[in-house]
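Schema walk-through. Below, the input block comes first and the output block second. Nothing else is stored per chain. Lengths vary across the set, and this one has 196 residues.
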Amino acid sequence: ILPELLPEKKLSWGNGILEMTTFLSIILGTVVGGLLAERLRGRLYVAGVLLVGLAFAGIFSSLSITRLAPADPQARFRWNFVSDMFRAVAIARQDRVLWLAVVGSVYFWFLGLLMQTNILFFGKNVLGVPEASIGYLLAALAVGIGLDVASALCAVLVGVAGCAVEGCGVDGIPWCAAVVIKNNGCVAGTGIGRRE
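--- output ---
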């Protein structure tokens, strides 16, 4: 729908806004999911009802989007999505910049999923923290990745090799968060303040 809503010069901006709000929603959902799992233990159906209600709110709010004429009225829905996927990859490979953007996006999603899965196991099995605290760890990871990306952009755009946020990036924030998350009266992962 973006090509119908925005002029060509604004497509990149619109796509960036769409991606940013998607990532913010994922981060918020991760934190809220942990909080719901912890607070509604034994009554998880309440979380299900809340999420179904949220889904219906999204459906009804989408009805307010202005209906536009399709960019390609001749285009038809194809049931064979695999062939469409391979065709899209073939088109993207013809443009080096577009192909690198696709590969970078896929790698970023892969890395995010890999880190999310590992932090879930790390928080639960190594730190022994509750679900809400694991959500905070995941949010800290997302902020860390954002700071590393901002630092890299700063270095490229400004020409300064060590921008201020470099040391606070993906390498440090989740582990700092792991140290301050408390579990059973002790600082998680350190044993400080543990009551026997």
